[in-house]
Write a structure and sequence with these properties.
Helices cover about 45% and strands about 10% of the residues. By secondary structure, the protein is an alpha+beta fold. The strands form 7 sheets. It has a 5-stranded mixed β-sheet with strand order 1-3-2-4-5, sandwiched between helices. The protein has a 4-stranded mixed β-sheet with strand order 19-18-20-21, sandwiched between helices. One of its GO terms (cellular component) is extracellular region. InterPro entries: 6-hairpin_glycosidase_sf (IPR008928), 6hp_glycosidase-like_sf (IPR012341), Ssp411 (IPR024705), Ssp411-like_TRX (IPR004879), Thioredoxin-like_sf (IPR036249). It is found in: Secreted.
């Protein structure tokens, strides 16, 4: 059984001879399987649970989480393994467990309620519903018993039980009133607006809001916790490009590059095994929350590749390559798909209780024992271990403050963080910079080999179409920018996996999930979990990036078909924009939402706006441009009110109101001169473009879509580039340096 299979979280809800599994044992989700031996009579989300609640007139307790969530583990261990709490839940409630990554629609609906009625949101999410699925009480993590500042889960259950018995009619009335208010508040529609707002105004306001929240010293846009938020960095790069000659433009570029550098030097990056942790618990990017999510790796590799395009600094390209090395090694299925996440928690030693960060932290003693060899040529006695500890800030007392370690689990432990430049470390010990670089890399490799012997964090081996689409983009874009065919091949394998295992040819629909089975097989739930809007939007984006990287038109053709299916299943023909879920799939939920925030992941509507613009550039189909305008108009009010909540959509608005470049390369795909022109385009940061290879075949897919391609000729039988805007094309260009000059104007 792969990691992520049944009972895979060490010392957490492990089956014993005395324990009998509940019905979650039949599920595929790693998160649900983690609860399969609880004394709680859990149901998966579905009609069986709803019918029981209605028949027995009991409220539903809904618990939403995901398998690599630290506080979900805590609540499972403290409350859901507790026999008395299990009895309370079983007698007076119908308990339903949901993996938020499998059912983002359920998660979004009830998170909207929790955020509107409490001080915030997060996971685990705990919501109590009427048998008709309307929420009436909500929260996040509850400790099992009352404390000084927090009411305990047992107390909450008893209070809700009494209220349900004594004041049910009041609860139902309040629930209906809150649901109606949420419905009105969450509506996103064009109304009587005809056009989206001014891109210049939205751009300026979004930049100003980001500038006000920027951390000058450490980069990023909050005190703590700090999230990578690649959508913000993407916006800043786009803003820089369209404001290059202004002070604000330079400022935007500096903000994005500095943030990326500070993150890469911080403890949020795994310097030993590569990849990025989910967020930092402090403003210095020093001590992370240690889980690693696929969607972060996918988006950050694109951000670092773009930083390399813009700055030419190989520091950024090395970080991007490191992320992809981690994904290929740790998050890849042998058939080409990508797993969802690795946990924050793992046992420090086999048989011990899991602790957060145990796999990733180091003591001074461990490093000294692993790296005892003397460094020759230093101005003072020095070992490789001492050099590494100086550069990465390791101390005897540990580098994690007590405030960041409330349980005292990480005393004397260190998170590696780059404290000095290579030049400063070299000067400190009278060494050459390259010698220091070699010694540090060698030391990190020894730590990596030693770390292999530690118990590994739990792997969530669920594969999601949306996140796989993002990862296809990550490999395709970085491979194209760096000119590395090997990385593009990973993207091709990922796209083939999606088509083979997550696409239903008969209906043209994507599946949301599949799972790693034993022996490298791929399993599906029965019935299948069909895709949501984000699955289509992110996969289409991945396929468009893959076409530009590989120039294989089959990926573009599939993207067009998926966009047609997306339009059919999710488009709001009355109000504009896309709903997050199919009408049938979300039947019974009190709200059908349109996601209106670019957060850790971009909103699927923001992504769709970009996709529609690009598809119009590839095909000339007016319907997609019209849809893009309707979508941006529907979100006008939200953009006007809080543009910083939708930086990716503001970027799409700018792309729409500027002119999309169609860069056409006429040539033999295998010829050196064709590849040189393609690589020239890939090396430059041009977010608002489509790249088209015209191979001279009038019957090719793109020639049929864009008849003007047949009028473009090779000059003197050489590969030739044309840059077309507003249905007018430049003079033919055969030299990469001339093309570079034109594209950088």
């Amino acid at each position: 059984m792969p990691a992520g299979g049944k009972g895979s979280r060490t010392n957490c809800s492990q089956p014993t001879p005395q324990k009998v599994p509940n019905r979650l044992i039949s599920e595929k989700s790693p998160h649900l399987l983690q609860h399969a031996y609880n004394p709680v009579d859990w149901y998966p989300w579905g009609q069986e649970a709803f019918d029981k609640a209605r028949k027995e007139d009991k409220p539903i307790f809904l618990s939403v989480g995901y398998s690599t969530c630290h506080w979900c583990h805590m609540m499972e261990e403290e409350s859901f393994q507790n026999e008395e709490i299990g009895r309370l839940l079983n007698e007076d409630f119908v308990s339903v467990k949901v993996d938020r990554e499998e059912r983002p629609d359920v998660d979004k609906v009830y998170m909207t309620f929790v955020q509107a009625t409490s001080s915030g949101g997060g996971w685990p999410m705990s919501v109590w519903l009427t048998p008709n699925l309307q929420p009436f009480v909500g929260g996040t993590y509850f400790p099992p018993e009352d404390g000084l500042t927090r009411v305990g889960f047992r107390t909450v259950l008893m209070r809700i039980r009494e209220q349900w018995k004594q004041n049910k009619s009041t609860l139902l009335e309040n629930s209906q009133r809150v649901t109606a208010a949420l419905l009105a508040r969450s509506e996103i529609s064009m109304g009587d607006r005809q056009l989206p707002p001014s891109a210049a105004t939205m751009n300026s306001r979004c930049f100003q809001q980001l500038d006000e929240g920027y951390d000058e010293e450490y980069g990023g846009f909050a005190e703590a916790p700090k999230f990578p938020t690649p959508v913000i960095l993407s916006f800043l790069f786009s803003y820089w490009l369209s404001h290059r000659l202004t002070q604000d433009g330079s400022r935007a570029q500096q903000m994005a590059l500095h943030t990326l550098k500070m993150m890469a030097n911080g403890g949020i990056r795994d310097h030993v095994g590569q990849g990025f942790h989910r967020y930092s618990t402090d403003r210095q990017w020093h001590v992370p929350h240690f889980e690693k999510m696929l969607y972060d790796q996918a988006q950050l590799t694109v951000a670092y590749s773009q930083a390399f395009q813009i700055s030419g600094d190989e520091f950024y390209s090395e970080v991007a390559k490191g992320i992809l090395q981690y994904v290929a090694r740790n998050l890849s299925h042998r058939s080409g798909g990508f797993y969802s996440a690795e946990d924050a928690d793992s046992p420090p030693e086999r048989g011990m209780r899991p602790k957060e960060g145990a796999f990733y932290v180091w003591t001074v003693k461990e490093v000294q024992q692993l790296l005892p060899e003397p460094v020759l040529g230093a101005t003072e006695p020095l070992t490789s271990g001492q050099l590494l500890m100086k550069h990465y800030g390791l101390t005897e007392a540990g580098s994690i403050s007590p405030s960041q370690d409330p349980k005292g689990e990480l005393q004397g432990q260190n998170v590696l963080t780059v404290r000095y430049s290579l030049e400063l470390t070299a000067a400190r010990f009278g060494l050459e910079v390259e010698a220091v670089r070699t010694l540090l890399n060698s030391g990190l490799e020894k730590l990596f080999q030693a770390r292999k012997h530690r118990p590994k964090p739990h792997l969530d081996s669920k594969m999601l179409a949306a996140w796989n689409g993002l990862m296809v983009s990550g490999f395709a874009v970085t491979g194209a920018v760096l000119g590395q065919e090997r990385l593009i091949n990973y993207a091709i394998s990922g796209a083939k996996f999606l088509k083979r295992h997550m696409f239903d040819v008969a209906s043209g629909r994507l599946m949301r999930t599949c799972y790693a089975g034993s022996g490298g097989t791929v399993e599906h739930s029965n019935p299948p979990c069909w895709g949501f809007l984000e699955d289509y939007a992110f996969v289409v984006r991945g396929l468009l990036d893959l076409y530009e990287a590989s120039q294989e038109s089959a990926w573009l053709e599939w993207a067009l078909r998926l966009q047609d299916t997306q339009d059919r299943l999710f488009w709001d023909s009355r109000g504009g924009g896309y709903f997050c879920s199919e009408a049938e799939l979300g039947a019974g939920l009190p709200l059908r939402l349109k996601d209106d925030q670019d957060g850790a992941e971009p909103s699927a509507n923001s992504m769709s706006a970009h996709n529609l613009l690009r598809l119009h550039g590839f095909t000339g189909h007016k319907d997609w441009m019209d849809k893009c305008v309707f979508l941006l108009t529907a979100f006008s009010e939200r953009m006007r009110r809080v543009p910083v909540a939708l930086p990716e959509m503001v970027r799409a608005l700018s792309a729409h109101q500027q002119t999309l470049k169609q860069i056409v390369i006429c040539g033999d795909p295998q010829a050196k001169d064709t590849k040189a022109l393609l690589q020239c385009v890939h090396s430059i940061y041009i977010p608002n473009k489509v790249l088209i290879l015209a191979d001279g075949d009038p019957s090719s897919f793109l020639s049929r879509q864009l008849p003007f391609l047949s009028t473009l000729r090779r000059l003197e039988d050489q590969a030739t580039a044309y840059v077309c805007e507003n249905q007018a094309c430049s003079m033919p260009i055969t030299e990469p340096c001339e093309l570079r000059k034109l594209l950088r104007q």
